[in-house]
Design brief:
about 280 residues; alpha+beta; outer membrane lipoprotein receptor (LolB), chain A; about 25% helix; signal
Length: about 280
């Protein structure tokens, strides 16, 4: 009996040692892959259906009269009346009003085929040419200095320039009934998600703008849009940081959608440019 118990004990110890050695020499098991938490769904409604409908109605209706108010950055406060004509991707614009900074000055603007014409005592090429020609691709000093602010003014009357192509990246932060000049409207607070917009924007300049915003920590860009009972804009408000101009914050109020508008170019002999820098000026960077 003692020998039997001894053999049993030795056998049990051998089995235990074999199991231990087997565990030590077997291939190590890879750790379980970490499960990436699912992205939290955005609870805010998608703005795409509303924006798609509104932008299509702007294209079909084609014209409107507008009042624009707000800040043109270093240029000063703006108040102007005018008209806008939507042609394909372009928006032709005419404005007549005033700016107020250290003093009040008259301001007239025409934008046709994406070329701007500015008439103000603050930027007059010479006594016989009151209109300054400004274009995005212009090599003259006036275009380099003023085209960013004029672009923002241009976009402020055209919600299509802000939302076309990035409807899927836009969310409705809130909406509520409101009135504009006594007319019943719905006011929408909209947010463009910059990361997603940078991926899907069809225009290269758009993509770069959203990429810069995302890189600077702006996860969303905010806008306000009021729609009337026909689903057309009654008011549109946007604030943007603009090169050479500072913060440009403009609100456009619309009326008389579909009414005839007159948008004319200034006489050619009254149009000039700033080819060189004015004295003491520094080139824009």
């Amino acid at each position: 009996m003692p020998r039997a118990r001894t053999r049993t004990a030795l056998l049990s110890a051998g089995l235990a040692l074999t199991a231990t050695l087997g565990a030590c020499t077997s291939e190590p098991q890879p750790p379980a892959a970490a499960t990436k938490p699912a992205a939290r769904p955005d609870p805010r409604p998608a703005a795409e259906p509303m924006l798609t409908d509104t932008l299509a109605k702007i294209n079909r209706t084609g014209t409107a009269h507008t009042t624009m108010t707000g800040s043109l950055g270093v240029v000063g406060q703006l108040t102007a009346d005018g008209a806008v004509r939507y042609r394909g991707p372009q928006a032709d614009l005419v404005l007549d009003g005033k700016t107020r900074n250290t003093r009040t000055e008259r301001l007239a603007v025409s934008i046709v085929d994406d070329v701007g014409y500015l008439n103000t005592p603050l930027a007059r090429p010479d006594a016989n040419k009151p209109w300054l020609r400004i274009s995005d691709d212009g090599a003259d000093f006036g275009s380099k200095l003023l085209s960013p602010a004029l672009d923002q003014l241009h976009e402020s009357v055209d919600p299509r320039a802000t939302f076309s192509g990035v409807e899927q990246a836009t969310r409705i932060q809130s909406s509520a009934p409101d009135t504009v000049d006594g007319r019943p409207t719905t006011r929408y607070e909209l947010r463009i998600l910059t990361d997603k917009a940078a991926e899907i924007a069809p225009d290269e300049e758009q993509r770069k703008r959203f990429q810069r915003a995302a890189a600077n920590g702006q996860r969303e860009l905010g806008y306000e849009l009021w729609l009337d009972e026909q689903g057309l804009p009654a008011k549109f408000a946007a604030t943007t940081e603009v090169a050479q101009a500072g913060e440009v914050s403009l609100t456009s109020t619309y009326r008389d959608w579909g009414a005839p508008v007159d948008i004319a170019l200034p006489p050619e002999h009254e149009v000039g440019v700033f080819e060189d820098l004015p004295p003491m000026a520094q080139p824009p960077r």
